[in-house]
């Protein structure tokens, strides 16, 4: 039985496509036919026909920065519950950070995740740890990662403080053409910090995290990459590919902007909570646990710089940093709260509400940030709406208004500051791995 999507708004930035049309998919999940404009596709006997009535059919969203907590902290999230959260948000793929217990720092850990996620409805990429145990002391086996098809490495949650170790990491990622994803943080500056350092933190009596802690590490890394490119690389080796996770300050955005202009293969992502909230939201919140994250919620000046980075193209991806925590880890004094919030279910709605509806970016650009670019940065195959290609779709109603409620969450955790918030734009379902899941 084939599946036929009719009367869709076909939106695919990879093909510069934004038109009305229909797509037919065979029972193996391969696109049979694509019709645009006045063209039609004939339905066969027994075909499943879905009239989208102008709703958007876009490439399945891809989140390149998630934490599903398995193995080791399944009380917060599992591969299955994280997958359910992804489907609810319109995501057909995610990349999982390695800071599980134990840390994913070997092919054995990669194989574990792949084995236990094979039957899930989304595609899961495993990001390997940059150093053994993410301790910043010895490099993980990059060559073995590469042979297992790992596309990226990161010590997310920390950053290599030893510059010599970081130099080696940069060189070896170039050797094996791995994407280096940096959680940029000078731990000596941030130690014990809870929120952005400034008047707000002083007023609340909470130790601050100086915003300079992020660009200091990015600047160091870019200097290493510039030096390596100039003095060490021959034409035989690819250049290092460097990506800044959850960027949060104006200085950081400016560093990446200048690195791009200088020809470095640098990119960065921003989370919805960093382009939506500021430290003032934490101050105003009665229960502050769900406003505690790393990097901390920015000042208004830095939040505005993030929005400008999205507007001018410096920031190439939106990623959630989906970080589930149990209630007792958030419903506590702010200086005892775990860092991070969940985000898969609210990412699309926040992007449309805060960026598209406010004229910062177009809907096509939003899909690029949420799907096309993350896959490109990770080195994954692009999604094309062409016969013979695998069908991988998000079905989106960009005009649907809804209120964030944990009753519909697929995640095991509920740690989000957006409960009760009214948003516009929601995923209605996905098609991936020859399966249609509609909500």
TrEMBL record:
The lineage of its organism: Bacteria, Pseudomonadati, Chlorobiota, Chlorobiia, Chlorobiales. Pfam families: DHOase. Zn(2+) 1 binds at residues 65, 67, 156, 321. GO terms for molecular function: allantoinase activity; dihydroorotase activity; zinc ion binding. Substrate binds at residues 67-69, 99, 325, 339-340. PANTHER family: ALLANTOINASE (PTHR43668). One of its GO terms (biological process) is purine nucleobase catabolic process. The keyword Endoplasmic reticulum does not apply. The active site is at residue 321. Pathway: Pyrimidine metabolism; UMP biosynthesis via de novo pathway; (S)-dihydroorotate from bicarbonate: step 3/3. PROSITE patterns: DIHYDROOROTASE_2. This is Dihydroorotase. GO terms for cellular component: cytoplasm. It comes from Chlorobaculum parvum (strain DSM 263 / NCIMB 8327).
